[in-house]
Amino acid sequence: SKYSLPTPVVSALSGGAGKLKFREFCLVALPTSGLHDQVVYLTSVHREIGKFLSLKQGASGLATLASGAYCPTLDKPEQAMDILQEAVKNGRLTLGESLAVLVDVGAERIFDKEKCKYEVSNGQWKTTEDLISLYVDLASGYPGVLGYVDPLSPRDVEGWVRLQERLGDKCLLVADRSHEDLLPLLSVHKQPQEGEGESLLDGRTSPTLECLSCVTLSVETTLSDFVSRHTSLKGHCQYTMLRTPLSLAHSTSLADLVNNFVCM
Q1: Which conformational region is residue 66 in: left (phi greater than 0), alpha (psi within -120 to 50 degrees), or beta?
Q2: Distance CA 231, CA 170 (A)
Q3: From the CA atom positions of the chain, what is the Rg in Å?
Q4: Residue 208's pLDDT is what?
Q5: Widest CA span of the chain, in angstroms?
Q6: d(C-alpha 86, C-alpha 25), whole Å
Q7: Strands across the sheet with 117-121, in order?
Q8: Angle, CA 49 vertex, CA 48 and CA 53 arms, to 5°
Q9: Cα–Cα dist 66/77, whole Å
Q10: Is 70 helix (H, G, I), strand (E, B) or coil?
């Protein structure tokens, strides 16, 4: 079996302080360097974000959530990407080479079942097609966009099909909670064959669709729960992302779970 260290991901910007209703913007350390350097890059850029926001907004720019994410006033996703791009540049790094951005939309929260539309920002509703176009434009305008978490509601299965067609070979599409309706779509994933290209996490574009499952840990999560969930998703997703809610931000449960899992 092939083993590798987890890829570090940190919460960089919260999307809830302004009109924008995206959940957060995360920085991902690409495996183009060792784990030590990856952590150094992330912490360095996190500090640069604080410096940039403090110059723009004063002391209030340094406010963070328990997750460590800064809380600037954002009205559209491009503003968040501009902040991250500037911070990465100030850290003498390049977005898309050493670090990338994972946009956590949390679309289930902003989806209106009756309207069949998404409230992307306060009072601004978008159809599925409009939202997909926004994602495509964002990925085209900012090469550092690695992928999207919960970009559409799990009930919007037809929308997921169209999203995969337009972005599946360019970005990672992360299905949080891996809703059962989406599993048939995730099963189209196949491992790249020799000569086909490598994973998007290696900084290269694969011609095959790559999807992740996001498993949220809680105080009730046991090792058996995690192994069972991870096993059930084999064949559907190449990667599993572990995340903890804010209430466990300072807990050791994630480290304990990983240590136990590695020792199995």
Answers
A1: alpha
A2: 26
A3: 18
A4: 32
A5: 52
A6: 14
A7: 111-112, 117-121, 124-126
A8: 115
A9: 22
A10: strand
d(CA 69, CA 65): 5
Question: pTM, whole model, 2 decimals?
Answer: 0.76
Tokens of 28: 């991902």
What number of other Cβ atoms are within 10 A of residue 163's Cβ?
23
Most confident of the ranges 1-5, 31-35, 148-152: 148-152
Q: Which amino acid is at 117?
A: K
DSSP 22-42: --EEEEEE-TTS-HHHHHHHH
**What is the C-alpha separation between 100 and 203, in angstroms, rounded?**
9
- Residue 71, pLDDT score: 93
Q: Which amino acid is at 261?
A: F
Distance CA 22, CA 13 (A): 10
Structure tokens at 192: 């790249």
Who contacts 241 (Cβ-Cβ below 8 Å, separation ≥6)? 9, 174, 212, 213, 214, 215
Q: Which residues pair with 121 in a beta bridge?
A: 20, 124
Amino acid at 190: K
- Helix, strand, or coil (residue 145): strand
203 closest CA partner among 97, 110, 109: 97
